[in-house]
Amino acid sequence: MTALVTLALLLVVIAYQAFVTVRVVRSDQYSSGQRIVQTILIWGVPLVGAAICHVVMFTDRQSPQRGDDGFVPATDKHPPGIGQDVVHH
């Protein structure tokens, strides 16, 4: 029974590492050098390396950084003296 549990855990770890490796290789957010280093980390440090790469990839793919909250889009209504096409003589 212990051998079966050990084998099952080993297969789960290998499957997880393969999953993260495929995600890294298919990702377009990293250069080829970064992909190689991450793949080495995934397989060189089993489970921990895959978890680190997976977390980093997840945090990098979060929603884009928010823009400036103070930005006001252009409208037809301009504040006085700003954006008006008035020629002063």
General description of the model:
- It contains 3 helices and no strands.
- The protein is mainly alpha-helical and 89 residues long.
- The chain has a domain of 35 residues.
- The protein is elongated.
- The model has no long low-confidence stretch (mean pLDDT 82).
Task: Output the keywords.
3 helices; mainly alpha; elongated; 0% strand; 89 residues
Quick recap of the structure?
With 89 residues, this protein is mostly helical. Helices cover 57% and strands 0% of the residues. It has a domain at 28-62.
Structural class: mainly alpha
Beta strand %: under 5%
What would you call the shape?
elongated
H-E string: HHH
The total count of helices amounts to: 3
Largest sheet: none
Distance between the termini: 95 Å
Helix content: 55-70%
Radius of gyration: 25 Å
* Strand element count: 0
Q: What's the pLDDT, averaged over the residues? A: 82
Low-pLDDT regions:
none
Could you outline the blueprint of secondary structure elements for this entry?
Blueprint lengths: L1 H25 L5 H13 L3 H13 L29
Helix pairs in contact: 1-2, 1-3, 2-3
